[in-house]
Design goal:
- By secondary structure, the chain is of the alpha+beta class.
- The protein has 2 domains: 92 residues, FAD/NAD(P)-binding domain, CATH 3.50.50.60; 91 residues, Orthogonal Bundle (Guanine Nucleotide Dissociation Inhibitor, domain 1).
- Helices cover 35% and strands 10% of the residues.
- It contains 7 helices and 6 strands; from the N terminus they run E-H-E-E-H-E-H-E-E-H-H-H-H.
- The strands form 3 sheets. Strands 1-2 form a two-stranded parallel ribbon. The chain has a two-stranded antiparallel sheet with strand order 3-4. Strands 5-6 form a two-stranded antiparallel sheet.
- A hairpin with a 2-residue loop joins strand 5 and strand 6.
- The longest helix has 16 residues.
- The chain is flat and about 70 Å long.
Length: 199
């Protein structure tokens, strides 16, 4: 540790990793340190399971949960939109050497006493148990529209301008009911409240 560095970054959370990666890409010599024995700060994935118990000051009973190495527990679940700016930044900075991306296979909701998969494409829309037969067709048309929509090509907008018209109007254009709007906005688009409807 007697070398000289251009920058010292303390902590290995996501922000610190991005900063360290960008500085490295710019040719800076970076010392990256963390006080924990694991990497990732407050957004770490802990393995073995004993590390999770130790973090919260609890003692793990022997063999209660199987082998500790069989577990990998995220302290904070992390969802990133695959085509978003954050993914591009992570790839550019080289931080992806320390990350592992995995596609989420589905989004599920609890309704009517059972768990149902949220339809994500036109095929799933027609077989979903979340909607009646007529609503399935309307939702299928909506999903096809969204899949073809291109911000750079106004021809794909089909009389709906996302720059000036709120999302609620798009739902109304396709005749989607409140239930379908609800799982689309929250389970697919990941909005935390309904304010997006008027944006």
């Amino acid at each position: 540790m007697d070398e000289e560095y251009d920058c010292v970054v303390l902590g290995t959370g996501l922000k610190e990793c991005i900063l360290s990666g960008l500085l490295s890409v710019l040719g800076k010599k970076v010392l990256h340190m963390d006080r924990n024995k694991y990497y990732g700060g407050e957004s770490a994935s802990l393995t073995p399971l004993e590390d999770l118990f130790a973090k919260f000051g609890a003692k793990m009973e022997d063999n209660t949960y199987g082998r500790g190495r069989d577990w990998n527990v995220d302290l904070i679940p992390k969802f990133i939109m695959a085509n978003g700016q954050l993914v591009k930044l992570l790839i550019h900075s080289g931080v992806t050497r320390y990350l592992e991306f995995k596609s989420v296979e589905g989004s599920y909701v609890y309704k009517g006493g059972k768990i149902s998969k949220v339809p994500a494409d036109e095929r799933e829309a027609l077989s979903s148990d979340l909607m009646g037969i007529f609503e399935k067709r309307r939702f299928r048309n909506f999903v096809c529209y969204v899949a073809e929509w291109n911000a750079e090509d106004p021809k794909t907008w089909k009389e709906y301008d996302a720059r000036t018209q709120p999302m609620k109007q798009l739902y109304e254009k396709f005749g989607l009911d409140a239930n379908t709007q609800d799982f689309t906005g929250h389970a697919l688009a990941l909005h935390t409240d309904d304010s997006y409807l008027m944006r």
